[in-house]
Amino acid sequence: MTFFLGVDGGQSSTTAIIGDETGRALGYGRGGPCNHVEASAGRAKFLAAMKGCLEPACEQAAVSLNQIRFARACLGFSGGPADKEALLQQMLPAEHIHVTNDAVIALSGATAGEPGIITIAGTGSISLGRNARGKTARAGGWGYSFGDEGGGYDLARQALRAALRMEEGWGAPTALHGMLLEASGARNANDLLHQFYTEAFPRPRIASFSRLVDEAAMNGDAIARELLHNAARQLAGYTAAVRGQLFAEAEPAVLAYVGGVFKSRVLLDRFVELVSIEEANRVGPPLHGPAVGALLEAYRYAGLTSIRLSNVPEFEK
Predict the structure, then answer these.
(1) Taking the domain 3-112+287-316, which CATH number applies?
(2) Where are the extended beta strands (E) located within 203-310?
(3) How far is CA 81 from the centre of its chain?
(4) For the chain, domain boundaries
(5) What pLDDT sits at residue 143?
(6) What was the pLDDT predicted at 281?
């Protein structure tokens, strides 16, 4: 039997899936986060996370981690591959190891390896696509200082801007003002602004305030609704930009969306409406998760581009 490995290494957990040469998933496992490896403690956590996901995956596949050797392994990591590749070469039993970023494996999983585009909107935002010729393109992903439009951090920032304008008397009234103060315990919007600049409010915590925008919009707040519609327009703009680089007019493409921001029904409905203007787009949630995407990439690197997956774990569908 020939073994292939896909790994999704993220900021909250690390997931490994082992497959055979037919595309059948044999085993999977989850370990801890593995996004930082610079310091010695970080390297130890990274190796522990890898072992933590590989051991149960091997156990399910009825093979020992000490005995297995993968024909191809693809691993995608948030934060990129640069600081992890050397460690993996030392500890991972594989003939060929391919290390990439999390957006690539998210795309492959979302479209089940078909040509298409994934738009990701969590704390930040990015759109990535690949066509039938293997050409890739991206839009966004510039980080919180220069981009990430439509992501959770940007939505929270826009909500606070709206609250500040209201507080200073040059903006329309919005329920976001009171909701932000209640959620944060700040005295006023200006106080919250200064708190957001401190270490007590890292970017993911600030991004978590974006849920208030959706809550306010669902309760009829016009400002909050406009913020969500604007975020949807920006995310749809990313998607259209990638499509324009990769696909001809009327050429079919699978379009997937993923990330906490898309939990907002107001934003999601507007996003789907906008990207569906191009009738050749097939829009929907991801077909599979990123760990399956990494496994599909391992097959693709081996030239197995027509693999049909089977026995995929439910959490990765």
Answers:
(1) 3.30.420.40
(2) 253-258, 281-284
(3) 15
(4) 3-112+287-316, 115-286
(5) 85
(6) 93
DSSP string, 27-84: EEEEE---S--SSHHHHHHHHHHHHHHHHHHHHHTT--TTT--EEEEEEEETT-STTT
Residue with tokens 């493409």: 253
Beta pairing partners, 118: 128, 256
What pLDDT sits at residue 65? 83
Share above pLDDT 90 across residues of the chain, in percent, rounded to a whole number:
68
Closest CA to 69 of 126, 5, 123: 5
CA–CA distance, 249 with 267 (Å, rounded to integer): 26
Checking if the pLDDT of 216 tops 70, the result is yes
Element (H or E) spanning 201, and its range? none
* Structure-token match 């930009």, residue found: 241
pLDDT digits (tens, 9 = 90+) for 98-110: 998 888 999 999 9
Q: Which CATH code for domain 115-286?
A: 3.30.420.40
